[in-house]
Amino acid sequence: MDIITRMSVGCMSKKKKTSDELDIYKSIRKPMPPPTKVIPDKRHKLKEEWFEEQTEQDLQQVIRDKGQAVRVRFAPSPTGYLHIGGARTALYNWLFAQKNKGSFILRIEDTDRTRSTEEAIEAIISSLKWLGLDWDEGPYRQTERFSLYHGTAQRLLDEKKAYFCYCTPEELETRREEALKAGIPPRYDRRCRALSSEQRRVLERERKPAIRFACPLEGVTTISDLIRGEVHFENRLLDDFVLLRADGSPTYNFAVVIDDKAMEITHVIRGEDHLPNTPKQVLLYNALNSEPPLFAHLPMIVGPDRKPLSKRHGATSIEEYRNKGYLPEAMVNYLALLGWSLDEKTTLISRNELIEKFSLERVSKAPAVFDIGKLEWMNGYYIRHTPVKRLVAEIIPFLERVGYLAEAPDKRKMSWLERLVFLEQERMKNLAEIIKLADFFFKDVEWDPKSVEKILSAPEVPKVLSMATERLESLDRFDSRGIEKTLRSLQKELGFHPREVFQPIRVAVTGRMVSPPLFETLELLGKRRAIDRLRRAQKILPRSSA
RNA sequence: GCCCCCAUCGUCUAGUGGCCUAGGACACCGGUCUUUCAAGCCGGCGGCGGGGAUUCGAAUUCCCCUGGGGGCACCA
Questions:
Q1: Pick the catalytic residue: A311, A345, A411, A539?
Q2: Cβ-Cβ contacts under 8 Å for A457 (sequence gap 6 or more)
Q3: Is nucleic acid strand B under 7 Å from A246's C-beta?
Q4: Which end of chain A has the smaller Cβ count within 10 Å, N or C?
C-alpha cells in the first residue's frame, strides 16, 4: 500500500458518522502531495532510513532487524546535585531502555577536573537510586579514559582532520569579546589551521598547543532528531572547536562522541540545550567513519517565569524533594508527564505502565513549566494510596530528625504510629508535614490564642468541657467507639449542635481548631493525656465565658 | 550580532484536515458530605499569539510577523 492510499484509508476509518456531503468532498478531493523529498545528506548516512513517515514502531523494527540492542546512557557532569531536569533525562533514558529491553548506562562526565567533585558523584548516584533508576553498566568515568581520547586525537591529526592550535585561552577570550562587541559572530578565526611546519616549530617553543577539529567549510549537516525531525546546520557556520585542551584533557564534544561510540550507544536522549552541539558531534562521527547514534532532544524544564529552573524557583534538586517527603513514585509519575503524555486523559500512571507505554514519539517539543502545585497534589495522592506500614517506615526518619522519636519504636509504639499515620495520611501533601500536623501527639499541647479566643469563649464551653471530662473519665475502655458514644450522647443531652461540643474539646485537647477526627485523636492521645489537657484547658478559658 | 528550537485554558497536556460546541489533569470558584481540616463526589470558570495563503472546510498544512527559549568557551 502506498502512502496516499494508506492516508485516505486512515482518514475514513477514523470517522464515525460520515455525511453524504462529506463523502462527495472526499471523492473529489485532490490527492495529498507526496511528502517533500529532501536531498539526502551524504554526511549523515542514517538519514534516508529515518525518513519522515517513519514511526517509532518502524524504527524499533529496524533496530531489531539490525540485531542491535538499544543502548542509552545518562551522562551527568558531577558539579552538583541531581537536578529536576537531569532526573527527567535520566528517567526517559531509563524508560526507553526498559521498554526496549536495552541497556541503561551511567557515565560520569568529569573531564572538567576543576569543577567535578566526588561528593557530587555520590549525590547523583544516591538520587538515581532513590528514584529507582538502576543502571546496567557503569558508572564509567571519563577521567579514566584519557588514553582513548589521545589516540583518537592523534588519528584525526594524522588524517589532517584536526590540527594544533597555539592560541592561548587569554588571546581567544579577548578576540571573542571584541567580536561580540563588534557584533560579529564570535567564532575562532582558524588562524592556526594553515600553519606551516616551520611556523609551528617556532610557536611550539613557548606554547603548549590545543588540538582543534578541522570543520568542513561548506555543506550542510543534517541531524534527524527523533522528537524534532530534521534539523539542518550549515557547516560554514560551525566552529573549529577544541578537541583536546593544552593540558591533554578532552573537551565535552570530543569525549561524548568517543565514549558514545566506544560504548555503542544507539540513542542519545538529552536536553535540548545540546541541540546546537549535535552537528559538531555528527561531523566528528563522520570524521571517524562511524555512524552517529540516533538523537532525541528533550524540551527544557523551566520555572513559572519561563526562565531556566533555578534556586529562585524553589527546590531544584531531587535530594531536596526527598528531604521534604516526596515519594519517589510521585516524583517519577510527575516527571514522566512533564514533557510526555500517554493519551488525552492519563494523569496517574505506575512505573510498570510507564515502562510498557513510554515512547519518544510522544515527547512534546515545547518547554514545560515545573508546576510544584501539581507535584504536591500528586504526592498527596500517592501518600493516600500507599499502605500504612510502608508510610510509617518512610515517616519514622522525619520524626527522628525533630526528636519526636528518641529510639526505635517497639511493637506497641509501632501500632500506635500506624494508627496515627492512618489518621494523617489523607491530610499530608508530603511526609514532612506530619511534624506540624501531629506535633500535639508528641509534645505538650500549645493552645493557639486565636483558636482559644474563637472557640473557647462561647458561654456553654465551661459546661461542655467539664461534663465531657467527667464522662470521659468514667470510661473504662478509652477507644474511639466508646468515646464517640459518650460524647454524642452528651451532645444530644445538652441539645447543642455537634460543632458546639466537639470544637471546644478539639481545641482543649489539640490546641487548635484543625485536627484529625476527634474521637480517634482522643483515643490516640490516651485517656491520661486527654483528661489532663481537658482539665488544664478549663483553667485558661477567656474571661467572656467564665 | 549569528545559528537553532518552540508556540492549545494560569500550569501540564490531548489534538496530525471534517469525530472540536477544542478533551483530561492541577490550580481556582461554587455545591455536597461532615464535629474541624482534609479526602471524596457533583458542577462551574478558563485556551488554539497575530496576519496572510491553501482548502468546500484549518488548532491541525505553508509563509511572514510577534513572543519565548537554547547555543555561539581550552564548561558540560
A1: A311
A2: A541, A542, A544, A545
A3: yes
A4: N
User: Strand B closer than 7 Å to the CB of A187?
Assistant: yes
pLDDT digits (tens, 9 = 90+) for A331-378: 999 999 999 999 999 999 999 999 999 999 999 999 999 999 999 999
Adjacent-strand bridge partners of A223: A231
CB burial string A347-356: b at 16+ within 10 A, e below: eebebeebee
Other beta carbons less than 10 A from residue A139's beta carbon: 18
For residues A227-239, one letter each, b for 16 or more C-beta atoms within 10 angstroms of the residue's C-beta and e for the rest, the string is: bbeebebebeebe
N residues, chain A: 546
Q: Work out if A253's Cβ lies within 7 angstroms of strand B.
A: yes
**At A206, which amino acid appears?**
E
Q: How many CB atoms lie within 10 A of CB A119?
A: 10
Alpha-carbon Rg for chain A in angstroms: 33
Question: What is the interface pTM, i.e. ipTM, of the complex?
Answer: 0.96
Cβ atoms of A214 and A240 within 8 Å: the answer is: yes
Tell me the CA–C1' distance in angstroms for A517 and B33: 15
Q: Does residue A24 reach within 7 angstroms of strand B, measured from its CB? A: no
8 A C-beta contact, residue A195 and residue A243 = no
How many helices (DSSP H) and strands (DSSP E) are in chain A? 24, 12
The dihedrals phi and psi of A519, each to the nearest 5 degrees, come to -65, -40
b/e string for A296-322 if b means 16 or more Cβ within 10 A? bbbbbbbbeeeeebeeebebbbbbebb
List, in sequence order, the alpha helices (H) in A314-448.
318-324, 328-337, 351-357, 372-384, 388-401, 411-424, 434-437, 439-442
Is a pLDDT exceeding 60 seen at residue A118?
Answer: yes
User: Would you say A432 and A497 are in contact if contact means Cβ atoms under 8 Å apart?
Assistant: no
Q: pLDDT tens, A466-503?
A: 999 999 999 999 999 999 999 999 999 999 999 999 99
Task: Pick out the nucleotide with least CA–C1' distance to A426.
Answer: B39
Residues 6+ apart with CB under 8 A from A378: A330, A333, A334, A347, A348
CA distance A345 to A348: 9
Cα–Cα dist A527/A486, whole Å:
14
Rounded CA-CA distance A39/A26 in Å is: 32
Q: Is the pLDDT of residue A5 over 80?
A: no
Among A349, A428, A417, A429, smallest CA distance to A388 is for A417
Q: Is the pLDDT of residue A389 over 90?
A: yes
Measured CA angle at A301 (ends A300, A302), to 5 deg:
110
Cβ atoms of A164 and A211 within 8 Å: the answer is: yes
Shortest CA to C1' contact from A25: nucleotide: B56
